[in-house]
Amino acid sequence: MPAESLADRYRAIRESLPEHVRLLVAAKGRKGREILEVVEAGASLVGENYVQDAERHRVELGEAADQVEWHLVGHLQRNKINRALPLFAMIQSLDSLRLARAIAARAERRVPVLLEVNIAGEESKHGIPADEVVSTARLIAELPALRVQGLMTMEPYMEDPEGARPYFRRMRALFEELKALPVPALHMQTLSMGMTNSWEVAVEEGSNMVRIGTAIFGPRS
Ligand SMILES: *Cc1c(COP(=O)(O)O)cnc(C)c1O
Hints:
By secondary structure, the protein is an alpha/beta fold. It has one domain: TIM Barrel (Alpha-Beta Barrel). The chain has helices at residues 6-16, 32-40, 51-61, 81-84, 97-106, 133-140, 165-180, 199-204, 214-217; strands spanning 22-26, 45-48, 69-72, 90-94, 111-118, 128-129, 146-153, 186-192, 209-212. Strands 1, 2, 3, 4, 5, 6, 7, 8 and 9 form a 9-stranded parallel beta sheet that branches. Helix 2 packs across helix 3 (51-61). The model has no long low-confidence stretch (mean pLDDT 97). The structure holds pyridoxal-5'-phosphate. Pyridoxal-5'-phosphate binds next to strand 9 and helix 9.
């Protein structure tokens, strides 16, 4: 077991990040008490992969859950939209026009979203293909129930994080391209990319939100 506490590891990463970069704590596979420890060390942004995990973690955190901004970062099944909407301040994993329309049909207030991009075109991953992002973003921007605030990606896993750099560059270019579009309904603010193995490279390439699990909590069992 490492000697450092979860709180120490969270703080060490927070301190190495430039101030303008937000740190999302990736909670998948973790226990409520582990998340609470990191929240007590100052974390205010938690990402969940599954609706049912978010529900459980909220109960386990008790009052502290209300101090946290919860984001959905995993694929959302359409039959879970109604349960997801009251739980999350943002859906980072908006991965198709079809899902966007289904969310818009059920939303009772405006839902902040990021468009998830499958930047390397991997079959195993969700996300909008890179060459469809601009056209899809224009269509999603027409849905008044959603507020498009940026892009998210899960890059291909590489042992050497330098290998991910070209994907982060492509993401940054897409982000800038969307930002430059004369579409007022696109509010491009957040570029969510970089995980345990890759966040330093992602930040160098323009990420302003990293999503970290393993480097804080240790390997998933
Ligand atoms: C698991 C996960 C992360 C964090 O991954 P680590 O390598 O454990 O830091 C980030 N984003 C998403 C969408 C994830 O599923």
